[in-house]
């Protein structure tokens, strides 16, 4: 499974820095998540990401 944060950010003309500030996480943690270097995600973070990006979890994930 792959997370597509960067794809969704570019569709919304937003940056990783903006998203990190918006959801209250460090840029480094968001970079790891965006680069698929994490093995899990909490539902509360997923909800914050979806609200900030105005999308659904289906927009953020893809099965490889």
From TrEMBL:
Origin superkingdom: Bacteria
PANTHER family assigned to the protein according to its UniProt record, in alphabetical order: DNA-BINDING PROTEIN, DNA-BINDING PROTEIN-RELATED
InterPro entries (alphabetical): Cro/C1-type_HTH, Lambda_DNA-bd_dom_sf
CDD domains xref list: HTH_XRE
Lineage: Bacteria, Bacillati, Bacillota, Clostridia, Lachnospirales
Pfam family, any one: HTH_26
Name of the protein described by the UniProt record: Uncharacterized protein
GO molecular function, one term: DNA binding
